[in-house]
Write a structure and sequence with these properties.
It is built from eleven helices and ten strands. It is α/β, with parallel strands linked by helices. It has one domain: TIM Barrel (Alpha-Beta Barrel), CATH 3.20.20.70. The strands form two sheets. An eight-stranded parallel beta barrel has the order 1-2-3-4-5-6-7-10, surrounded by six helices. A two-stranded parallel sheet has the order 8-9. Helix 5 links the parallel strand 4 and strand 5.
């Protein structure tokens, strides 16, 4: 069975598929982005930079206000430590968080089990747990430097299968490997979250495996993470509208 392109769920509209990366230095800057784009996009990502700057209190501020937060801290440590961190992420009320699939099955299974348990005992809504496969800043040479002899798409497929077997809800992968993920994990509802989205393929930053919003959805991405093309725009709402319009104009 081969996955066909443009097979994303029609139940999710284009705006709700967009996760805006709050890759800014301060809570004030992040609040300005959220205030401007609230209702225009589906969720906001809090990553290492902002989390290190402002801490979990700001995440709680967002979730208490009903904002959907993707906590992008890529937990990767011994199983017990990751499981405990996963519990605290869940208690923050986030919509989604991620862990590194490279941590192995015991780490992932323990995180899923502990989150499920705490959600039952404390009556907390269960967040989506996604697994990072191969960073979009990496390529075959990067993998080789770390002793991984597989090509990027092979490694992504292997880690996606492992994530599914461990009970994760989906993976984070480049849109270029979404079809690979769908073929490797033929499980209904298994999500693909795609970073590295650009307005066009031209990029002068550290991303190597980038795609456009249109390409990502055509390939089957369920959610896309967009940072600079929206954050750096003079009118961020207009930037979102333009990105969605490029998708709609293709049909």
């Amino acid at each position: 069975m081969t996955h066909t392109t443009d097979a994303v769920s029609p139940a999710i509209n284009a705006r709700d598929r967009i996760i805006v990366a709050l890759d800014v230095e301060t809570a004030e800057s992040a609040r300005a982005v959220v205030d401007e784009l609230n209702g225009a996009v589906g969720a906001f990502k809090v990553g290492l930079q902002l989390f290190t700057s402002v801490g979990p209190g700001f995440v709680r501020e967002l979730t208490d206000a009903g904002t959907r937060v993707f906590l992008d801290l890529k937990f990767h440590d011994i199983p017990n430590t990751v499981a405990k961190a996963a519990i605290e992420a869940t208690r923050l009320g986030v919509w989604m968080f991620n862990i590194h699939t490279a941590g192995g099955s015991r780490m992932m299974k323990m995180a899923v089990d502990e989150v499920n348990k705490i959600c039952r005992t404390e009556g907390i809504a269960r967040p989506l747990i996604t697994g990072v496969t191969v960073l979009t800043s990496s390529d075959n040479e990067t993998l080789a430097q770390t002793g991984v002899t597989a090509q990027v798409d092979e490694q992504v497929a292997r880690l996606a299968r492992l994530a599914a077997d461990c009970g994760l809800d989906g993976v984070v992968a480049s849109a270029r490997e979404v079809e690979t993920v769908k073929n490797a994990v033929q499980q209904k509802g298994f999500l693909t979250v795609t970073p590295g989205i650009r307005v066009n393929r031209a990029t002068a930053d550290d991303q190597k495996r980038v795609t456009t919003f249109q390409e990502a959805l055509e390939n089957g991405s369920d959610y896309v993470v967009i940072g600079r093309p929206i954050l750096d725009a003079a009118d961020r709402t207009a930037a979102v509208t333009e990105i969605i319009g490029q998708r709609e104009a293709a049909y």
